[in-house]
C-alpha cells in the first residue's frame, strides 16, 4: 500500500471517485444527446459534425498526452479538479454557441475545452480508481465505470426529456456545467493527495515520477491490452456520438426517440457494470470478455439491420451489455501489479480513450460516403477483433489479479 488510510477515509475516497466518474459520464451524454438539436440549430451536415468531433478528439488527445504531466506536477487530486472546471467551461460554451450566439467556431472552441478536460480526466480518474482497487484487493473498476454509465444514463435521460420538451441547448448545458463544477469542488475535499504512480520507495522529483509513469509504453503487454480495449472503446464511443442520430434519422424515429435509444444503451451498460465485478471474479476476465464481445456484435448488427424500432431498441440494449466491461477490465488488467499500476493504467487508458474519441469522428467522415448504419459494420468488426484478442487480459502470475 502506498497510503495508510482509515476505513472511513478509504470509503469517502471511493465515494468521491464514484462521483467524478458520474460527472464525466453526465457531461459526455449531455453533449451526445443534443447532437441532433445542435445539428438542426446550426444547419450543418453529418460531415461537419464529424469534423467537430475530430476537433474534440484532437483536444482530447492533447489532454491525454499532458495528463501524466498534470499528475506529476499537481497530483491526481488537484489535477482532477482543474480539468473538471475546464470541461465545464467547454460544455457551457457549446450551448452558448448553439442558441445564444450561434457560431460554429464557438461550438468548436467549447468542444476543444470539453475534449481536453475529459481526456485528461479519464486518465486521472482511472489512475485513482485503480489505486483504490489495489487498496481493497478485489475487482471494483467495473463498478467505477458503472457510475460513469450512471452519469450517461442521467445525462441521456435528461437529454431525452429536454429535447422532447423543445428546451434549448444552452439552458440545458449551462445547468449541467454548473452541477459539474459543484460536484468537482465537493469531491476534491475527499480525494487524498498522492504522488502519481510513486510507490513508497519512488524518487521524489516530479521528473522521475513522470519518467516512471511513461515506462509502461515500453512494455509489449500494454499494446496487446490496447487491442482488447480498442474495439470496445470504438463500440462505446460510437454509440455515444452516433446512436441518437442513427435512430433519429436513419431509422426515422425522431429526436426524442434517438435520445431514448442512447438511454437504453446506457442503462444496459450500467446494469452489467454494477454486477461486473462478481461476474469476473467467478468466470474470469478472458471468458467474460469473449462472451460480451459476441453479445456486442449481435447487438450492433441487430441495431443496423432491424426492420422496426422495437428491434432497434433491443439491439441498442445488447450493444450496451456487450460493450460494458471492455474498458474497465482493460484497466483492471493493467493494474494487476500494484507497484506499476498507475503507469500501466495511464498508458492503457490513453490507448482506449484515443479510440473512444477519434473513432466517432472517423466514422462520421466515412458515413458521408456509405451511410451511417453501414458505417457501424466497422464497429462490429473491431469488437469481434477485441474478442479474439481478449486473452491479453489474463491476470499476471503472482499478482492480486491471479484470483480474477
Question: What does this 3D model show about the protein?
Answer:
- This protein is mainly alpha-helical and 404 residues long.
- It has a single domain, classed as Growth Hormone, Chain: A (Up-down Bundle), CATH 1.20.1250.
- Helices cover 81% and strands 0% of the residues.
- It has helices at 7-33, 35-42, 46-100, 104-136, 141-164, 169-188, 206-214, 220-250, 255-283, 285-305, 309-322, 326-334, 341-370, 372-388.
- The protein starts with 6 loop residues before the first helix and ends in a 16-residue tail after the last helix.
- Residues 197-203 have low confidence and may be disordered.
> What's the order of the H and E elements?
HHHHHHHHHHHHHH
The residue fraction in helices comes out at: over 70%
The mean pLDDT is 84
Question: From the helix content, strand content and strand pairing, which structural class follows?
Answer: mainly alpha
Total number of distinct structural domains: 1
**Helical stretch tally:** 14
Total number of β-strand segments?
A: 0
Biggest sheet, open or closed, and with what strands and sense?
none
Amino acid at each position: 500500500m502506498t497510503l495508510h488510510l482509515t476505513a472511513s477515509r478509504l470509503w469517502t475516497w471511493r465515494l468521491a471517485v464514484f462521483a467524478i466518474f458520474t460527472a464525466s459520464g453526465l457531461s459526455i451524454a449531455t453533449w451526445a444527446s443534443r447532437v441532433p438539436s445542435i445539428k438542426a440549430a446550426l444547419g450543418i451536415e453529418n460531415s461537419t459534425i464529424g469534423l467537430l468531433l475530430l476537433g474534440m478528439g484532437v483536444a482530447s488527445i492533447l489532454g491525454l498526452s499532458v495528463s501524466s504531466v498534470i499528475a506529476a506536477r499537481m497530483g491526481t487530486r488537484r489535477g482532477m479538479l482543474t480539468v473538471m472546471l475546464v470541461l465545464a467551461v467547454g460544455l457551457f460554451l457549446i450551448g452558448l454557441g448553439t442558441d445564444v450566439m450561434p457560431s460554429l467556431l464557438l461550438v468548436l472552441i467549447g468542444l476543444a475545452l470539453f475534449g481536453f478536460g475529459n481526456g485528461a480526466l479519464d486518465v486521472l480518474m482511472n489512475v485513482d480508481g485503480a489505486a483504490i482497487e489495489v487498496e481493497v484487493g478485489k475487482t471494483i473498476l467495473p463498478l467505477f465505470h458503472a457510475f460513469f454509465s450512471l452519469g450517461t444514463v442521467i445525462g441521456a435521460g435528461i437529454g431525452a426529456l429536454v429535447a422532447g420538451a423543445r428546451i434549448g441547448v444552452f439552458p440545458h448545458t449551462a445547468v449541467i456545467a454548473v452541477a459539474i463544477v459543484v460536484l468537482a469542488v465537493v469531491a476534491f475535499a475527499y480525494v487524498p493527495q498522492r504522488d502519481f504512480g510513486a510507490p513508497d520507495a519512488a524518487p521524489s522529483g516530479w521528473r522521475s515520477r513522470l519518467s516512471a509513469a511513461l515506462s509502461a509504453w515500453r512494455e509489449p503487454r500494454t499494446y496487446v491490452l490496447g487491442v482488447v480495449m480498442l474495439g470496445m472503446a470504438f463500440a462505446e464511443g460510437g454509440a455515444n456520438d452516433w446512436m441518437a442520430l442513427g435512430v433519429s434519422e436513419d431509422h426515422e424515429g425522431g429526436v426524442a426517440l434517438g435520445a431514448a435509444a442512447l438511454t437504453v444503451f446506457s442503462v444496459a451498460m450500467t446494469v452489467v457494470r454494477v454486477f461486473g465485478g462478481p461476474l469476473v471474479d467467478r468466470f474470469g476476465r478472458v471468458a467474460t470478455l469473449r462472451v460480451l464481445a459476441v453479445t456486442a456484435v449481435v447487438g450492433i448488427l441487430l441495431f443496423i439491420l432491424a426492420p422496426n424500432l422495437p428491434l432497434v431498441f433491443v439491439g441498442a440494449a445488447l450493444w450496451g451489455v456487450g460493450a460494458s466491461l471492455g474498458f474497465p477490465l482493460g484497466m483492471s488488467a493493467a493494474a494487476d501489479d500494484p507497484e506499476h499500476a498507475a503507469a500501466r493504467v495511464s498508458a492503457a487508458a490513453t490507448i482506449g480513450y484515443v479510440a473512444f474519441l477519434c473513432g466517432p469522428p472517423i466514422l462520421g467522415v466515412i458515413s458521408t460516403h456509405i451511410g451511417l448504419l453501414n458505417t457501424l459494420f466497422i464497429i462490429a468488426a473491431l469488437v469481434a477483433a477485441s474478442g479474439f484478442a481478449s486473452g491479453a487480459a489474463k491476470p499476471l502470475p503472482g499478482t492480486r489479479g491471479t484470483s480474477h
